[in-house]
Amino acid sequence: MNKYLRLVLPLTVTLALICLKIYLGDQSKDWQGVFSYLPHLNTVLIIIGLTWSAFVLIRILKGIFLKQYDINREDNLRARKVYTQINILHKVANFVVILIGVGLILVSFEPIRQFGVGLFASAGVAGIIIGFSAQKAIGTLIAGIQIAITQPFRLDDAVVVEGEWGWIEEINLNYVVVRIWDQRRLVLPSTYFLEKPFQNWTRSSADITGTVFLYTDYTISFDAMREELDKILKRTDLWDKKVKVLQVTEAKEHNVETRILVSAKNSPTAWDLRVFVREEMIKFIQKNYPESLPKTRVLLQPEPKTPES
Question: Which of 36, 74, 78, 289 is most buried, by CB atoms within 10 Å?
Fold first, then answer.
């Protein structure tokens, strides 16, 4: 109910201004000097009141619609999708309301209205000039609307952008804020995500597969590592019991690359799981296979004897 009460004040003020407008319309014929501007000032205030009411109404409708979706639940893919769309559409609606309000206020001034009519014939040329000068701003605005419709990412998606890993924290019409894992904020223009590639780890679902790379000597026992991985995952609740893989992905001249894949319910949990698995596997190798830690071999051979020696 409190949400609807917020609409009472702007509507009451606007209604009072409209009533005052009707009264001034009957009395303003005999007014002179500074009082002759009161009817026009009242018109401007009515437009501001209607704009204010539209802002509050849009916010109330947004709150009612988003109340049906809980973004804090674990499987929040659809909720994040709706939140992303509604938040951007909310900003677009506010922009349109401001544009209409400012336009109506300007048109209410007689000199400006006459000047606008006089330039109407050259509006095409003016539009082309404005279009070129505001190309970047308009392109960024359209990019924000396009992101809301196509949704290459949503709020709280885990992404890798510019070599940084983090979450989508804020989506605006002209820029996007990415919260980096170390609490830094990466602010990028909306056009960036339409022009350059980036990684989205949670586009299809909230759960995610984490990767751990280990580098050991050729003498390591891979069967023993697989058995230890099973024991590690049984000791933690971070693993969602969906993906568990240990594979040798590379054999280099000095060491062997082993990749471990484990799954978790969301990206923050996957990060903690990767760290936990990496630490426990390193402890296992240090304790049970210290000779299998990465090493560089050097073979020393005596110089061949020459006939003279």
Answer: 289
